Amino acid sequence: MIVEILTPDKTLFSGEADVVTLPGSNGSFQILKNHAPMIADLSKGTISIKSTADKQHFEVNGGLVEVLKNKVIVLV
Fold it and tell me: Has this prediction a pTM greater than 0.90?
């Protein structure tokens, strides 16, 4: 799936991922390929992006995530 992490100033991450772990306002949750469409609030915490080749972490202070047709857009 395609993942993009966007701020008002720049793109923090754009690429392929197998698993995305996000700090939801009601606890952390994961998104996998073919996830149902959704929009959710994010709280302060760590976004983890895992692909077959790499694992990356991003600290955020909150935001929104949209999942639609194997594309995850995170606004922080």
Answer: yes
What's the topology of domain 2-75? ATP Synthase; domain 1 (2.60.15)
Residue ranges in the chain whose pLDDT is less than 70 = none
Distance CA(43)–CA(36), nearest Å, equals 21
Beginning with the edge strand found earlier in the chain, give each strand of the sheet holding 55-68 in spatial order: 11-16, 2-6, 71-75, 55-68, 38-50, 19-24, 27-32
Domain boundaries, the chain: 2-75
User: Is residue 36 within 8 Å of residue 67, measured between CB atoms?
Assistant: yes
Q: How far apart are CA 23 and CA 32, in angstroms?
A: 15
Backbone angles phi, psi at 32, to 5 degrees: -115, 170
